[in-house]
Amino acid sequence: MTELDDIDHRILRALSDDGRISNLDLAARVGLSPSACLRRVQALERSGVIRGYRAVIDPAASGGGFLAYVLVGLSRHTRAEQRAFEAAIATAPQVRECHNVTGTFEYLLRIEVSDLAAYKHFHTEILGALPQVTTITSYIVMGSPKDERA
């Protein structure tokens, strides 16, 4: 595990806020010379602390304005059932996140689709058709006053 200091944390916060910030602006923001800043960013990338950069897409502007969080329970609690479920979910473009969680359910999914009809199709024809799935509990997002995912 990489040991991070205060400057590394400032770099990571700045890049989380704006992954397209120029090295010159980033260096000024964190109080380093541009060359020292670039070396630190490259070291964070090499060590895997920075795994990549991506665009933050507005779901409504790109045809995916319906968001739901779904809790999924499996019929059997075996590693084989988990692997089969995870393999099936990996091929579903509606699933933007899949987390194996503790508690009453095995998985928490974040689903992005265009509308309620598209969600119903996903719920019934894709998720509900998986033989491993025994329970599905849906939470429809009505608004997101804070969302720092990128």
Helix-strand blueprint:
Layout: H1 6-17, H2 23-30, H3 34-46, E1 66-74, H4 79-90, E2 95-100, E3 107-113, H5 116-127, E4 133-140
Antiparallel strand pairs: 1-3, 1-4, 2-3
**Global morphology:** elongated
Low-confidence stretches: none
Q: Briefly note the structural class of the backbone.
A: alpha+beta
Q: Please estimate the helix content.
A: 25-40%
Strand residue percentage: 15-25%
Rg estimate, integer Å: 20 Å
CATH architecture of the largest domain: 2-Layer Sandwich
Main sheet overview: 4 strands, antiparallel
Calculate the terminal CA-CA distance, rounded to whole Å. 23 Å
For the record, what is the CATH homologous superfamily label of the largest domain?
Lrp/AsnC effector binding domain/regulation of amino acid metabolism (RAM) domain
Q: Count of DSSP helices?
A: 5
- Per DSSP E runs of 2 or more residues, the count of β-strands stands at 4
How does this structure look, described?
By secondary structure, the chain is α+β, with helices and mostly antiparallel strands. The chain folds into two domains: 6-46, Winged helix-like DNA-binding domain superfamily/Winged helix DNA-binding domain (Arc Repressor Mutant, subunit A); 66-140, Alpha-Beta Plaits (2-Layer Sandwich). The protein has five helices and four strands. The protein has helices spanning 6-17, 23-30, 34-46, 79-90, 116-127, and strands spanning 66-74, 95-100, 107-113, 133-140. It has a four-stranded antiparallel sheet. Strand 2 and strand 3 (107-113) form a beta hairpin. Helix 1 crosses helix 2 (23-30) and helix 2 (23-30) packs across helix 3. The chain is elongated and about 55 Å long.
